[in-house]
Amino acid sequence: MKGEDNATHSIRRRTYLGIAASAGLAGLAGCSSGTTASAARAPPKVPKGALKAGGWEYIGGHSLDPAFERSVGPASVSAAFETVVYEDMGLSETLKEKTLGQAEGQFSLFFATRVTLDPGLSNLPETVRGTVVDLVEKHARKHYETQLSDVGVTDIEQTDTRSTTVDTGDSARVTDYGATISFDTITFPFTDEKEFTIEGQEFDVSGMLAVWEHDGTILVAGGAHPGENIELSVTKEPTEAIEVSVDIDLGLTPDAYRDELRSLVKGVE
Q1: Nearest in space to 217 (alpha carbons), one of 56, 43, 92
Q2: Cα dihedral across residues 110, 179, 18, 89: positive or negative
């Protein structure tokens, strides 16, 4: 089919959220050493009931052990990471169906990472503990932004920083993000000789990243989702006698996606 290469490229671009989220905190591995964190390592606990009810499915996870070793004040600290990633499969299937298979990819992602330290966070002096948490948060933000940029997301900016209380009662520091992504031109066959082309557009992306201490470890959780509904009205004249109009409204609900992501993040422990 003519135009298939354009459509395939466009679909690849739509997987940006999965790439960004599943990368987790790999950027911290740049300071790797031969030391392995001796504390018990385990993936974070996620709100599986809410994930199942919302149509989310586990799509993978990864470990970094050791991830880094740093001298912080009088202490030498090493860390190990365990990350899990979930996709809103219900949303992906709905959008694929609505667009006749064109919008095939990952649109809403949620991830959670447990950072296990050696010595344990609770065993570090108070001043050192705060510095370590700040270090993890700084690198988490940087890598999150880099991964988005690497897959074509542009105009990435931190739109807000705030504190929130998670379900365990701990206080988390949250960074909210806004960005845009360009969707490539999509071409549909109209007749054997004619095509119907929808030019590329830019759409908003929203995301968040939260960092907090819990039970002697550091938790990092967040994700990304569509930041606006996609509505287009396209009119073409394939011949002098024919005018074709296509109205596209995917019915996306960014506010609902944001609230759901925040709820999932708060449920991590």
Answers
A1: 43
A2: positive
